[in-house]
Write a structure and sequence with these properties.
Strand order of the largest sheet: 3-4-7-5-6
Distance between the termini: 48 Å
Number of helices: 16
Helix content: 40-55%
Structural class: alpha+beta
Low-confidence stretches: 220-224, 345-350
Shape: globular
């Protein structure tokens, strides 16, 4: 099993091309996540892990305010993720959680893509995307990849909320990919039998364990980034140290969740402050720079949405508007007021 397998450059580039087509500034996505704005322009792109792919997908989804990251022609608002995780909090068994997940995502999509099948031996979550309105419908490999990633995300969400019960109960995973030759590395994520060439995606759990009382669900992330942040945190907890490849990205995950104290971030990453500082320096950045990059990325997004300079300064916790003006000008070469006067397709009155 690989909890943080590598994703092929071909699949990443196809995803980025679709995001760019939807109007996402990819350089800003990479910069905001701590990868550096020129990350994708390197002659040989660094290997991308599953965790980092979910980071990028989550940031694209946030910038588009679309939980599907523009992989569906029918948009789901980003806050949908927080709504679904909140409903799961009321579950007392794994079967309850699976049923709640299927019900509320069907409600959000307006279609019955998700069903739950209960037998005397298993409880199965079935995801049938045969009629799903993919934006990349002419690229079957990418459709397979998206479906397989959704299955991994669902499993991570269920296992994190059930305190490991889902992992103990999981018996079989089914995917629609037809070829057994050269299986992509991300499918090595699973440590149970994998069935190929199926008509739908399926997670099959032991009936008895699925109906056993579930210990209190883990702390629910009620932020608008609930699903992505929870899945990433789960994968990081279960990956081995050798599978990590970016302390900048891992630090930025926590910064984006509001943890801006270097001591706390170091503790959460099981490092001393000095070691975290050295790791970040080896990746060409500093903790202070990551915090500043996050603040400025957020500032640009909020200004483009039409928020006033004073309101953005307040939302980003600057001591006063003059400090915000100075920081923004250092970063962008112009004042936030001048930047805000630029016409933006995303502008909306506040």
């Amino acid at each position: 099993m690989k909890r943080n397998p590598q994703i092929s450059e071909t699949r990443l580039q196809a995803f980025l091309a679709e995001a760019a087509r939807a109007g996402v500034d990819i350089a800003r996505v990479f910069e905001g996540l701590g990868f550096g704005s020129d990350w994708q322009d390197q002659e040989v792109m660094p290997e991308l892990s599953l965790i980092d792919f979910f980071r990028i997908e989550g940031e694209v989804a946030r910038r588009l305010d679309d939980l599907t990251a523009h992989l569906s022609e029918r948009k789901l608002t980003f806050e949908t993720g927080a709504f679904v995780t909140t409903q799961l909090h009321h579950s007392t068994t794994l079967c309850d959680a699976i049923t709640s997940l299927a019900k509320h995502f069907n409600m959000m999509h307006g279609e019955h893509y998700n069903t739950v099948r209960v037998t005397d031996r298993t409880v199965s979550l079935i995801i049938d995307d045969g009629d799903f309105p993919y934006t990349m419908r002419d690229d079957q490999d990418m459709i397979d990849f998206i479906g397989e990633c959704v299955l991994i995300q669902v499993y991570c969400l269920l296992d994190s909320l059930s305190d490991g019960l889902a992992e103990r109960a999981l018996q079989r995973v089914s995917v629609k990919r037809t070829s057994s030759k050269s299986l992509p590395e991300h499918l090595q994520f699973w440590n149970v039998p994998l069935s190929l060439n199926q008509t739908a995606y399926e997670l099959s759990f032991d009936h008895e364990l699925a109906h056993a009382p579930m210990s209190k669900t883990g702390e629910i992330d009620l932020s608008s980034e609930g699903i992505y942040s929870r899945v990433i945190a789960y994968l990081e907890t279960h990956a081995t140290a050798s599978e990590f490849n970016s302390f900048s990205a891992r630090s930025m995950d926590l910064i984006r969740q509001g943890v801006t104290q270097q001591e706390i971030v170091a503790h959460r990453l099981s490092l001393s402050v000095a070691t975290l500082r050295r790791r970040l320096e080896s990746e060409g950045t500093t903790f202070r720079q990551l915090v500043n990059d996050h603040r400025m990325s957020e500032a640009v997004t909020l200004l483009e949405k039409g928020y006033s300079v004073a309101r953005v300064s307040e939302m980003l916790d600057y001591s006063d508007i003059r400090a915000f003006n100075r920081a923004f000008k250092r970063w962008k070469g112009e004042t936030p007021a001048k930047f805000a006067r630029r016409p933006s397709p995303h502008s909306e009155p506040v």
